[in-house]
């Protein structure tokens, strides 16, 4: 399955304030990320599952975006396996040759952030505000999306 039938509309995204303190995710090494600790960074947060066809279809574009920004210290990528099965999720990434950092939920996640629809992608600006939210499949390797991330990176 390929994508290309939906490019995320970043112009219509509204900035929305959320209290991110205490929203936590952990990886297979036991490292915990608290979204509240990431102020000053742009955060790309994606909820997905290995069994989700739209999630699987958008991963090549997400991996391309991740590869473009992974070395930027101002950007953090968090890919949350909705099933919380890090072993299965990491095996999936390895088999598909994706480099995406996989996490599971370690706290309550407000519905303002995730209602259960897969995939769901959010971008938080450096102030911790939701600058982009999309439920469903999208092409994140689109040039306009990269430009959008760059604008958030250079903004104060």
Automatic annotation (TrEMBL):
The lineage of its organism: Bacteria, Pseudomonadati, Bacteroidota, Sphingobacteriia, Sphingobacteriales. Residues 1-154 form the Thioredoxin domain. The keyword Cell division does not apply. It comes from Pedobacter mendelii. The keyword Protease does not apply. Keywords: Redox-active center. This is Thioredoxin domain-containing protein.
